[in-house]
């Protein structure tokens, strides 16, 4: 699929409920939020427990009616992520869901074979990890360290894959869906040559995904040890940032006391003036790698749905072929028949159509001249 340059692509075709299969039973949702977080979700996200399942079903119905070929999971728990990310606004949640899938299909370098075992070098480099402790608002802190990346080892897209899988794992938690996350980015040692890998194309793609193509609430981005070149990097990405997100960027330089105003020392590792011990990436890597089956199941579900949608499209195309054949077959009687090579190509085409539709194109006899 072709993109619009901002991480999204044109919306899939509109369809009707009659064009899709009857939906299978969805896993029953059981809320895991504490009473405190239920109250927080009600206040901040307009989530009413008594209406929650009704809202999920409303979003599911919109997907089935407007985007039957989207190829998405329709579980309660999955759809709830998008409703929470858009404060239970049905239309905005639907658009976010569409963007989520469009982003995944428009950047194959990032989203093909996307699973933890495929990005082990990026994980082992320590480019991205999650701190062991939550902040005072109950939010996970995603720590990004570009200096850990050696460009000769693997392309920059592997880092983006590592970040994306990290977010996918985090958003499985209902607590994260409500509380959001915080990002801590350490730009110590980032050179001009390394920064050059992060150009406008990648910048726009990543920002497009984080702002409009992923169901997560980014509550703050803390930048530390940023070199002078970071002003150039930020100048590249700022035009793509919404004002609300741009206002959540905090540049601390090398002033750790400034960082500690946003993130308390007791949750930070020693490297950042904290008291939580040395920064350890092994715990998060092990957790992510142990989740391999979760990601494989998601990919299999999406591919299965897409395959069914493709079959549906081929069926419609075969119907059109039947009509065309009826119209043009009489004309073919007045033109030379196919050669042996042409006949073999038609047979190959028939085999493909037969797989999905059971329809064969009748083959004209070869005329001898």
UniProtKB/TrEMBL annotation:
Q: Which residues form the CRAL-TRIO domain?
A: 115-280
The record's Pfam families line, in alphabetical order, gives: CRAL_TRIO (PF00650), CRAL_TRIO_N (PF03765)
Q: Which GO terms describe its molecular function?
A: phosphatidylinositol bisphosphate binding
GO terms for cellular component: membrane
Gene3D superfamilies on file:
Alpha-tocopherol transfer, CRAL-TRIO lipid binding domain, N-terminal domain of phosphatidylinositol transfer protein sec14p
| Stored PROSITE patterns | CRAL_TRIO (PS50191)
Q: What is this protein called?
A: Alpha-tocopherol transfer protein-like
Q: Which organism is it from?
A: Podarcis lilfordi (Lilford's wall lizard)
């Amino acid at each position: 699929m072709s993109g619009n340059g901002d991480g999204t692509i044109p919306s899939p075709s509109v369809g009707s409920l009659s064009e899709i299969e009857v939906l299978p039973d969805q896993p029953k949702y059981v809320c895991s939020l504490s009473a405190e977080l239920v109250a927080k979700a009600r206040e901040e996200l307009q989530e009413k427990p008594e209406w929650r399942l009704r809202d999920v079903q409303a979003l599911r119905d919109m997907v089935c009616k407007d985007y039957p070929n989207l190829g998405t999971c329709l579980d309660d728990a999955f759809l709830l992520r998008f409703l929470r990310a858009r404060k239970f606004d049905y239309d905005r949640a639907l658009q976010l869901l569409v963007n989520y899938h469009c982003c995944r299909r428009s950047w194959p370098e990032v989203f093909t074979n996307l699973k933890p075992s495929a990005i082990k070098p990026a994980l082992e480099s320590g480019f991205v990890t999650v701190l062991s402790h939550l902040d005072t608002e109950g939010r996970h802190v995603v720590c990004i360290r570009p200096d850990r990346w050696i460009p000769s080892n693997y392309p920059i897209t592997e880092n983006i894959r590592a970040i994306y899988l990290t977010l996918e794992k985090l958003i499985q938690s209902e607590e994260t869906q409500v509380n959001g996350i915080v990002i801590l980015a350490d730009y110590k040692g980032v050179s001009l040559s390394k920064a050059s890998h992060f150009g406008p194309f990648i910048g726009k793609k990543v920002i497009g995904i984080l702002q409009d193509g992923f169901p997560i609430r980014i509550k703050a981005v803390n930048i530390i040890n940023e070199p002078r070149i970071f002003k150039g990097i930020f100048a590249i990405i700022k035009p793509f940032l919404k004002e609300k997100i741009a206002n959540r960027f905090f540049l601390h330089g090398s002033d750790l006391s400034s960082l500690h105003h946003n993130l308390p020392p007791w949750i930070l590792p020693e490297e950042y003036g904290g008291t939580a011990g040395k920064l350890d990436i092994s715990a998060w890597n092990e957790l992510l790698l142990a989740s391999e089956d979760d990601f494989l199941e998601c990919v299999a579900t999406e591919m299965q749905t897409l395959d069914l949608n493709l079959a549906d499209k081929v069926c419609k195309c075969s119907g059109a072929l039947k009509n065309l054949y009826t119209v043009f077959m009489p004309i073919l009687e007045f033109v030379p028949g196919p050669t042996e090579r042409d006949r073999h190509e038609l047979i190959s085409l028939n085999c493909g159509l037969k797989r999905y539709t059971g329809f064969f194109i009748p083959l004209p006899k070869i005329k001898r001249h």
